[in-house]
From TrEMBL:
Annotated PROSITE patterns: PH_DOMAIN, TPR, TPR_REGION
The name this protein goes by in its record: Tetratricopeptide TPR_2 repeat protein
Renumbered ranges of TPR repeats: 312-345, 354-387, 396-429, 438-471, 480-513
InterPro entries given in the database record: PH-like_dom_sf (IPR011993), PH_domain (IPR001849), TPR-like_helical_dom_sf (IPR011990), TPR_rpt (IPR019734)
Domain named PH: residues: 680-774
Keywords: Repeat, TPR repeat
Top-rank lineage group of the source organism: Eukaryota
Native source species: Salpingoeca rosetta (strain ATCC 50818 / BSB-021)
Compositional bias segments (type: Basic and acidic residues): 640-654
Amino acid sequence: MADQRLTHGVSVAAVRRFLDDLKREFPDTYTEMTTEDACKQLVVPRTRQDNCAYVEQLRKQSPEHVNKATVFVSHAWRYKIADVLNVLLEFADEQARKDDGQPVFFWFDLFMNNQNANVTANLPPEWWSTTFKQSIANIGHVLLVLMPWRDPVPLTRAWCLWEIFCGISNEGTEVTIQLPNSEEQALQHAIRDSYKAVTDTLVRVQAERADAFNPHDKHMIFTAIESWAGGFSAVNQAVKDQLRAWCLQKAVGAVEAMRARGEDSTDAFAGLCGAVGSVLLQFGEHDRAIAYYETTLTIRLRTEGENGKNVAALYNNIGNAYDSKGEYDRAIHYYEKALAVFVETLGEKHLSTASTYSNLGIAYRNKGDYDNAVAFYEKALAVFVETLGEKHPSTASTYGNLGNAYYSKSEYDKAIAFYEKALAITVETLGEKHPSTADTYNNLGTVYASKGEYDKAIAFYEKALAITVETLGEKHPSTAASYGSLGIAYNSKGDYDKAIQLYEKALAVFVEALGEKHPSTAMTLENIGLLHDKRGDKEQACAYVQQALNVFTATLGPDHPNTRKAERNLRRIRGGTVNAQHASTQHVSGSRLQQQNLLAHRHLLLRFISSAVVYQSFAPQRNLLMRFLGAVAHADVDARRPAHTGSDDEDKKTGTGHGCPRGCSVPARALYKDACKCPSEPVAGWLRKRRRRRAAFRPCWCKLDDDGHLAYGKSPSGTAKRRIPLSSVLSAELAHGGEELHVAGPGRTFVFRLHAHSDTSLADWCTAINSRINATT
């Protein structure tokens, strides 16, 4: 395939001329002809004698209609050719109305490729992932022709998905999704009626199941996808995100179009605004969502009155938005308004009433008022049991909510009892292999870990892992992360052999899913190396940490904290010292940390001596005491040497949050954490965190605690939902013009935005996290 055909395109006039030729040659059938029909019946007959592409003939006849391509067209050959060409012309008209009004030249494969030959047959494998991708970057704009929206054919074709992904993954390349004008109105109606149904249709992207007319092309595209970091999973997610953003754009555009037509006081407008509000809430745009909900509410109050069914539903939606913002009192206010309407119009024993009780329970739990949360959950439970029965998913969900509330109150046994009820119903009604079942297993694992019962926690985590493997597959990054979590648990128990096995499973999946050159891969390699070091196998330890160092250097650069930490670990294992260029600065910060640790060790020693007779778990305390007696004995010597990350740091690195030897009791762990606190001031405040596998942002109370973790939870007074060990953080940086903070860890990036009640800027959070990272490395 010549370079010229990768870079040149045809004019709008040439597209219009070809459409006219179709009408003239096939007046009765052209509207039913597919792109493939047009190829066989018009393009090939015209170009067969010269054995060339259509563009070559066009160049000879009208060279002014061929120029550098400005738009790459992605479409399915099963489309009606007239529909495709009309979409191109509609797109060109829209571009012409823009301020710059630059001429459009389309790279359109029907015209640009020689249809008399298999132009891709002899291309080398690297062409697909390098030359082709770079060609799209050079063009700078991908136009995806999407029709019909109810059954989007391009999302099932390997070529189209690869073209879309190449556009998305090229920084600076614009991707436009275009429907025929004839389908715009139908899409607007569908968005108003059920936005979720629209998005569900459009995001059924499974690149691994896509097909291609030419089996060779399919094989080469799949090879290119598999060679890309993240493979099929990355392609699927990128395309889905692009389509969701487009759906949001279309939804907002539909509202503005109705407003411009003077239809902004109709029931249809109210319905569309309500749907757009729900879309915006999913994307974490709380204030905009509330504005759309309030527009809808104004119309519904006028048409239905205060006790209208839709009015009560809107009160609930506005409450959801305020709850997501962290404004719990305002959320409760709107939930109470919804509850009053539902009780008045539907009665106490109605599902809408029960759902509102649940919403109030969630808001009170988020606020930290766990007693009120329990009270409302119990009211919801009573209604669900009476109306739906004990064996129903909604009943199970409410049992789970009660478990969450009691977990937040640190009443772990009660939490377990409710989780077990939820589990029994979920398994009976939804089945063992269901995401809700996996969630409940994870909840049980978490509460048992909080109790210090690691064997039980591991058992539940393993059940959750089994479901993850079955539902997402063995080769999914989430599966790798689950293996890593189990490795962490076994490492906390001191079962290093088992931990290494699980880390190696995680490594294999990370390599296949994300590639060898990925920070998550490097982190897993280093964890394996450090465990080999704990076992005394220096040769294996050096090999793994060296690999980790190579990957960190290649992906994060030589000056990244994780790269420097891996370098120090490698030198320590080999018996060397930190290189001279870092020695002085490392000595200063290292000495300070060692002095802090020395004070903590001495304080811990005194605490244990004074409390040894209080607790029955004397043997674990004695072991911990002897461990830190040894640390104190060597601390003065260590303080005079440059700091390094030894195997003892693995407790922090793996994210257990305990740092306590196997068998240590809950009180002993509390003593350990209290005694080892770093004297630095904690950083805390409200932020919004993006939820996993979803675009929505939810408020959370975040804190850089004084034992080396970034913790976040529902409220300042509640138990942290998660504690991220800073020693495992790969990077912390601002993104999107400083509007987001990205904290990257093994297998996952945590994304935060400012909250309405934030007192600390994202820049200050970023600085604080990075300073703590540097302090722990």
